[in-house]
Amino acid sequence: MHLTKILIYMKKVFVFSLLALITFAGCKKYEDGPTISLASKKARLVNVWKLDKAFVNGTELTLTTDDKDDYTEFKKDGVYSETTVVNNVSNTTTGTWDFDDSKDNVIISYTYGSITVTSTSKILRLKSKELWMEHVDGNTTYKYYFIPK
Predict the structure, then answer these.
(1) Which fold would CATH assign to domain 38-148?
(2) Is the preceding omega at residue 34 within 30 degrees of 0, hence cis?
(3) Could you state, in order of their start, the residue ranges of all structural domains in the chain?
(4) Are strands 105-112 and 130-137 parallel, antiparallel or unpaired?
(5) What separation, in Å, do the N-terminal and C-terminal C-alpha atoms of the chain show?
């Protein structure tokens, strides 16, 4: 009788493990991962990010001291801000952000003078300590690699 209970228990564990593996195998949302995360996409994106690397059409840009002082913030309430530094002078642009319906892309809107600018960037990797994004503008592809500030 004891052996039968052990076998039934082992079968349940095996079936549960198999179902979990099948369920999580398809969970990789973004091209470069992560495969699975317990934190929501929004919780992982909400942060103050600084640029670590940038590429234009596959060529890595050399970041200046000012570039390294720039940062981007995604707030929980949908507020977006980007602070750029030029010659030790900071300029902050604010707007809004949201995911598209599939949560594959981040849509950022802000006003520049009297013009409302909306841009969409594809998320390549979204972890609590890494954010990789791609933005295509005509024939130019920008890839941005961020880390927490």
Answers:
(1) Lipocalin (2.40.128)
(2) yes
(3) 38-148
(4) unpaired
(5) 60
Which of these, 42, 35, 4, 8, lies nearest to 20 by C-alpha position?
35
Q: Residue 39's pLDDT is what? A: 87
Residue linked to tokens 């890839």: 143
Using only C-alpha atoms, the chain has a radius of gyration, in whole angstroms, of 21
Structure tokens given for 51: 């640029």
CB within 8 Å of 88: residues ≥ 6 apart: 66
The span from the CA of 8 to the CA of 10, in Å, is 5
DSSP state of 61: P
95-140 pLDDT, tens digit per residue, is 999 999 999 999 999 998 899 999 999 999 999 999 999 999 999 9
Question: What are the two backbone dihedrals, phi and then psi, of residue 21, each rounded to the nearest 5 degrees?
Answer: -65, -45
The answer to whether the pTM exceeds 0.90 is: no
